[in-house]
Amino acid sequence: MNPTIETQMLIRKPVSEVFNAFIDPEITTKFWFNSATGPLKEGKIVQWSWDKYQVKSKVMVFNILENKLIQIAWGEPKTSVDFIFEAVGAEQTYVTIRNYDIPLQGSELIKFIIDATGGFTTVLDGLKAYLEHGLVLNLVEDKFPPF
């Protein structure tokens, strides 16, 4: 079995703005992680940090097609993630996040699928709130209890 996790959301902003929200950590920190060592650039490795959870993750950027695709590998265990951007007219973008190459089986795989699906859905919800309404909801930070 080689599962692919997929989440998606329509964002009512131009594709260039939505794409840049994932490239530029000054924007991404408004809806996902707390800090990054730099913007996403093809062939580079950056580190993302979630302060509350004392978690850091190295992100290897494999491919960037401007306003269309960002391909990375990250996490423990290391998996592949595609961020796909599709313009739906001048002012709307359909974002799909695909997570695959998951080297787990059985109950570990099921737990990973549940966690990753919920996590990426939360990211897209936060992105939508921030880009469409200027709201920083702290969804990722508030997803798990403080203990």
Mind explaining what this structure looks like?
- There is one protein chain.
- With 147 residues, this protein is of the alpha+beta class.
- It has one domain (5-142): Alpha-D-Glucose-1,6-Bisphosphate, Chain A, domain 4, CATH 3.30.530.20.
- Helices cover 31% and strands 33% of the residues.
- The chain is built from four helices and seven strands.
- The protein has a seven-stranded antiparallel beta sheet with strand order 1-7-6-5-4-3-2, covered by helices on one side.
- The mean pLDDT is 96.
H/E element sequence = EHHEEEEEEHH
Biggest sheet: strands side by side, in what order? 1-7-6-5-4-3-2
Gap between N and C termini: 35 Å
| Architecture per CATH nomenclature, i.e. the level-2 architecture | 2-Layer Sandwich
Q: Give start-end ranges of low-pLDDT stretches.
A: none
Strand content: 25-35%
Full CATH superfamily name? START domain
The total count of strands amounts to: 7
Helix content class = 25-40%
**What's the level 1 CATH class?**
Alpha Beta
Looking at the structure, what is the overall shape?
globular
Topology record:
Layout: E1 5-11, H1 15-23, H2 25-28, E2 35-36, E3 45-50, E4 55-65, E5 69-74, E6 79-87, E7 93-100, H3 106-133, H4 139-142
Antiparallel strand pairs: 1-7, 2-3, 3-4, 4-5, 5-6, 6-7
Describe, in short, the structure shown:
By secondary structure, the protein is an alpha+beta fold.
List keywords for this structure.
147 residues, alpha+beta, Alpha-D-Glucose-1,6-Bisphosphate, Chain A, domain 4, globular
